[in-house]
Amino acid sequence: MPGRPDEFEDRRGLARDFAQQHHAAVRNGSPLYADLCRAASLDLAGASRLTDVLAPWADSRAGDLVPLRVLGAVHRLVLERAAPALALWFPSVGGTAPTDALGRDACYEAWVDALVEHADRLPALLASPPQTNDPGRAAALAGALQLVAAAYDLQVRVHELGTSAGLNLLADRIRVSWPGGAIGPYGSILRLDDAWAGHPLPPDDVSPVVVERVGCDLDPVDVTTTEGRLHLTSFVWPDQAERLDRLRDAFRLAEEVPVELVRVDLVEHLRGLRPQRGTVLVVWNSSTWFYLSADQRAEAEQIFQELGAAATDDAPVVHVAREYLGDMFTTSHALVLRWWPVPESQSAYAARPGDPVQYADSPAHGLPVTWMPPQPPERP
Questions:
Q1: Is it true that the peptide bond before 67 is cis, omega within 30 degrees of 0?
Q2: Residue of 283, 378, 285, 284 lying closest to 331 (CA atoms)
Q3: Alpha-carbon distance 138 to 133, whole Å?
Q4: End-to-end CA distance of the chain
Q5: In sequence order, what are the beta bridge partners of 324?
Q6: Which residue among 40, 97, 121, 313 is least crowded, i.e. fewest CB within 10 A of its CB?
Q7: C-alpha to C-alpha distance for 380 and 330, rounded to whole angstroms
Q8: Strand order in 175-178's β-sheet?
Q9: Residues 352 and 314 sit within 8 Å (Cβ to Cβ)
């Protein structure tokens, strides 16, 4: 499975965690969050108001992603109109992101003010992992479903581990396009344009028939409610208008396509899955594995092996993972598939059932997906 397990368990201190998040924000196109995280990292290196207000989370593990939780909490305050001074700098509510040193300092001070003023709400606001559920990540799953549909002439059951609101389970109902081609319903509410690059692309002459969409999460988000929409929107970076637009379109699509959400630990959900004759079971996870402890990851892997052993030609199992393969925040997200049993179309790449095969890479928020010749991942 992806990642270096001990790295997720590291407790490096919030100053280093915010410094890493600064670099991630730079790479992923958010100058606003890059500036805030850099200033926060410097503040947290010594005594400060921020050090005091975040003291209860000072010993958090790296995999808890406390900087993203804090950023989401403050963005929520802005969206609730509870931080008016900071709202002036947040484009998500009509503000203008700072462009000079004076503006960056004022924005940061307003950001810390919001945390201090609402310190009593922080235990609740920081309690759950980031629930971004960026619909852009569905572009990778859409390609994986094309590969599955080409490999097996079977209906598809899709189960997502750590699903948040289940928006990525709509992948086959999204219009995904690239220069010279497209898949998905022509009139879909949600379009992901220029979503694929590289070579070879997944086959575009098949259409997966998804008959089951189930997502599990410890705290699933209901996007048919104002609270659910507000919660997801708070984790989108406020100076990234395209991501905000995609999320709003995904909310509308979710009203048309039912998705079953189950409140359960993902290992427990995985343990309850079974292959079913006449269908292919696709188990999908994206930006999820680093939230698990080393023991949970090991247990999940054992269950995958048991699922694979129970798979047959008319009841296959495919694990689709879009996760970090290398160091957190410094590598892209690899799309890796494992097949049980290995279909003929994939036999050149997977010698044995369950062999991991990497098909693509993608940035943190999903777009674009860069496809590549199938190969063993650098880190299995």
A1: no
A2: 378
A3: 9
A4: 6
A5: 333
A6: 313
A7: 17
A8: 181-183, 175-178, 191-192
A9: no
Q: What is the mean pLDDT of residues 214-218?
A: 96
> Band of the pLDDT at 131, cuts 50, 70, 90?
confident
Contact (Cβ atoms closer than 8 angstroms) between residue 109 and residue 216: no
- CA-based nearest residue to 321, from 294, 352, 359, 351: 359
48: its two tokens:
């400060």
Q: How far apart are CA 7 and CA 16, in angstroms?
A: 13
pLDDT at 192: 98
Summarised one tens digit per residue, pLDDT across range 13-37 is: 999 999 999 999 999 999 999 999 9
Per-residue pLDDT at 104 exceeds 90: yes
Which of 82, 104, 101, 103 is CA-nearest to residue 93? 82
User: In which residue are the tokens 């992923």 written?
Assistant: 28
Place of tokens 């694929």: 196
Length of the chain: 380
Residues whose CB is less than 8 angstroms from the CB of residue 378 and which lie 6 or more positions away in sequence, other chains included: 325, 326, 358
Single-letter amino acid code for the residue at 83? A
Instruction: Give pLDDT, residue 1.
Output: 40
**Residue-averaged pLDDT of the chain:** 94
pLDDT at 309 over 80: yes
Give dist(CA 253, CA 247) in Å, integer.
10
**Alpha helices, H only, the chain:** 5-9, 14-27, 31-44, 49-53, 66-79, 84-87, 101-117, 122-125, 138-151, 226-234, 241-256, 266-271, 294-310
